[in-house]
Design brief:
The structure is a homodimer. Chain A is α/β, with parallel strands linked by helices. Chain A folds into two domains: about 30 residues, no CATH class; about 250 residues, Alpha/Beta hydrolase fold, catalytic domain (Rossmann fold, 3-Layer(aba) Sandwich), CATH 3.40.50. In chain A, about 35% of the residues lie in helices and about 25% in strands. In chain A, strands 1-2-3-5-4-6-7-8-9 form a nine-stranded mixed sheet, with helices on both faces. In chain A, helix 2 crosses helix 8 and helix 6 packs parallel to helix 7. Chain A is globular and about 55 Å long. Chains A and B meet through strand 2, strand 3, helix 2 and helix 8 of A and strand 2, strand 3, helix 2 and helix 8 of B. Strand 2 of chain A pairs antiparallel with strand 2 of chain B.
């Protein structure tokens, strides 16, 4: 997996010298990946995304790859890049090789929340002018950016298959489920690690109930999870995840394969380590290389 | 965590042009890390190691870091580099920032096994001239290389603390436990993910029994694990790990904190994803930033 790359001609001559004198040689370790800045007309700003792709070798030179679109790229892109690389290695091979697109944030609350709201985690209005909750409610435009600008860019520049996954944590988990409910055609599989269902007095939980018709058809995969996330006496995350899980059971949606995992030994911030791994294993549990 | 680095002057001019025309800009994503080639006098060969280190910023500019020495660097270095980075982030912070040294293989069986043996996993001699088991028995020299050449190099060139961890998988797990038994002073904590106790008719299991005196003092931490690894009817890994675990219970070694984890849902090759994470959490479970 390592790329030995001596980064300039001076280093190359140095390497030869150093070997001659039996001293250590140093070079920089790299991982295949691009940093792309997209000037979004929809969001009226530049958006930075990280793109990791499988190394090309004789075994995959003509292959095209599924794409995992990940929110909070600055937090979990390296994790997913590493998981998808390792788990698709020839001697592990429990998932296919994959392209990972990590979308980094500009105004996170704006992009990942579905409604304009100043109601905080405790159900109380946060009226502060500089509240971290402001601005909010831009998730529809963010999804439009992904659909109309990001996905076309990735499809034009990388060897993509049509199979796409959308994954996020916390507000990113909320956005993932909001996308499944409002734009289900965008992705084939959805991952919501500790979705912030508390947003706007459980807006997305209520939307789930309104949107999913009992016995309807929705050929998707969905993984969702929570951890030990109690703040004071409240453990809203767990209560809401249990509600969401039983809603899905009651609705008996045809074709929707879903898995719920609870990680009582993990915190809100350590949970993604286990949850993103389990989500990949769940999505590809029936996968066999053809 | 990302480094935006435009890799040559042409790319830099391109970037400016491209921004002007509102087209995407691409640059290469990097992760801090070195590839070092050490000309070993002990092993009479060049050894390639990968070295990952925390990014320096205002919060850690004067800090020195523990070092994790990892066998099979080509397989699990990226995983450990990513875990130690993520788990030590300011908003996760369940372990300290760390340097990870991944030792890649030349002759893996030679370096990681403690005895010359042609007895295979099934307890039968493998007499083939080209057997993958040959050569074997060089673990003492490999440990000497680490002690006398690698550790001094890392200490001289990176901001190290004295706290050191030794970690390996399969033959690497065997080597980790062999080091604990024969050179316990080398490391403060040892990780053995599915150690190949089957080697040479359970040589290291017998060595454990001979070496560890009941009630002796050994201030170390030790994590060991196995997964679903049955080959045919035999599941030697699990049987041997259970034996090792009860040996440690019986010996009541003072100061030795040990944890055993069994991962029935994982295979020999997927186990490291969970086991290396759990090992880091175990080793640093009482850690608090000072």
């Amino acid at each position: 997996m390592a790329n030995i790359r001596l980064h300039n001609p001076f280093m190359k001559s140095l390497a030869v010298l150093v070997l001659f004198f039996s001293l250590p040689v140093r070079a920089q370790k790299t991982m295949p990946g691009d940093v792309v800045i997209i000037a979004s007309k929809i969001l009226h700003e530049n958006r930075t995304v990280y793109i990791h792709y499988p190394k090309t070798d004789s075994s995959n030179v003509n292959k095209r790859f599924p794409v995992l679109y990940l929110m909070d790229g600055e937090s979990h892109f390296d994790m997913l890049a590493q998981y998808t690389d390792y788990l698709s290695r020839w001697d592990v091979k429990v998932i296919p090789q994959m392209i990972v697109v990590g979308i980094t944030n500009t105004k996170r609350t704006r992009d990942l929340t579905p409604t304009v709201s100043i109601i905080n985690y405790f159900g109380k209005p946060d009226t502060s002018a500089v509240s971290w909750m402001k601005p909010s409610g831009g998730n529809a435009e963010f999804l439009q950016f992904i659909q109309e600008e990001l996905i076309p860019y990735v499809d034009a520049n990388y060897k993509t298959q049509s199979y796409k996954i959308f994954a996020g944590h916390s507000f990113g988990g909320l956005a993932s489920i909001n996308c499944l409910l409002t734009q289900p055609a965008m992705f084939d599989a959805y991952v919501a690690v500790s979705p912030s269902f508390w947003w706007d007095r459980e807006y997305v939980l209520k939307l789930t109930d309104r949107t999913l018709q009992k016995g309807a058809l929705l050929n998707k995969k969905l993984f969702y999870s929570d951890a030990s996330e109690g703040i004071s006496d409240s453990s809203t995350f767990h209560t809401n995840l249990l509600k969401f899980d039983s809603l899905l059971s009651v609705k008996k949606i045809k074709g929707l394969e879903h898995e719920y995992k609870y990680y009582p030994a993990e915190s809100h911030m350590t949970e993604p380590v286990s949850a993103y791994y389990d989500a990949l294993r769940f999505i590809f549990r029936d996968w066999k290389e053809n």
